[in-house]
Amino acid sequence: MGDRDKRQAARLVDRIIEEVAAWPHVNTNEHRFEGREFTLGPREVGHVHRWGIVDVPFTKRLRETLVEEGETEEHHVVPESGWTTRYVEDDDDVEQAIWLLRLSYLYHVNNLKKTPKGEEMFAEIDVAEELEELDISEEVRAAFERRGVIET
Questions:
Q1: How far is CA 90 from CA 12, 73, 125, 142, in A?
Q2: DSSP code, position 56
Q3: I want to staple 54 with a disulfide (CB 3.0 to 4.6 A). Which of 24, 97, 131, 148 is the partner?
Q4: Do residues 41 and 122 touch, judged by C-beta distance below 8 A?
Q5: Cβ neighbours of residue 62 under 8 Å, at least 6 residues apart?
C-alpha cells in the first residue's frame, strides 16, 4: 500500500471513528496495531485499524449470516471466531462499516438494558426501532430474536 493509499485509508477510518465515538456512552481507546477500539462499558463494539480494516464481533451464528449475505467477511486472522472484518476503501465501505458497528452497538445496548443501570443509561435508545431503520434482513432479525434482542 502506497503512502497515498495509506492516507486515504486513514481519512476513511477517521470518519468512522468520528461517527462511532459520538454514540451514547461509547468510549474510544487505543487498540494495538495502529487502531482505535470502541467500547460500551467492558464490552467491545469493534475496532478500526488505520490502514483500512474494521473488525466487529458478533455471535458466531450472526456472523455466519452476515458473511453469507455479503455484509462483511470472516475475520482476517481468526476466521473461525465470531469476529468479522470489513475492508474500507471508499465511501460505501465507510457506510457499511458504520452499519456493522451500529448493529454490534445495538446488540450490546439491548443486553445492558436488561440491568437496572443499563435500563436507565440507555432509556432513550429504542433497539427494535433502530434495527428497523438499519433495514436488516429476515435472517439477521431471526438471529437477534434468538438472542432475545427483539421480540417476534
A1: 7, 16, 29, 30
A2: E
A3: 97
A4: no
A5: 82, 107, 140, 143, 144, 147
DSSP H stretches of helix in the chain: 3-21, 60-68, 91-112, 116-121, 127-133, 138-146
CA angle 95, 76, 85 (to 5 degrees): 20
Residue type present at position 60: K
Residues 47, 36: contact at Cβ < 8 Å? yes
In a 10 Å sphere around its CB, with 0-12 CB exposed, 13-18 middle and 19+ buried, how is residue 92 labelled?
exposed
| C-alpha to C-alpha distance for 89 and 86, rounded to whole angstroms | 10
- H or E segment to which residue 37 belongs: strand 35-40
pTM for this entry: 0.93
Alpha carbon distance, N-terminus to C-terminus of the chain: 46
* Side chain identity, residue 38: F
The residue to which cell 487505543 is assigned:
30
List the chain residues with pLDDT less than 70: 1-4, 149-152
Could you report the per-residue pLDDT of 34-58, keeping only the tens digit for each?
899 999 989 999 999 999 999 999 9
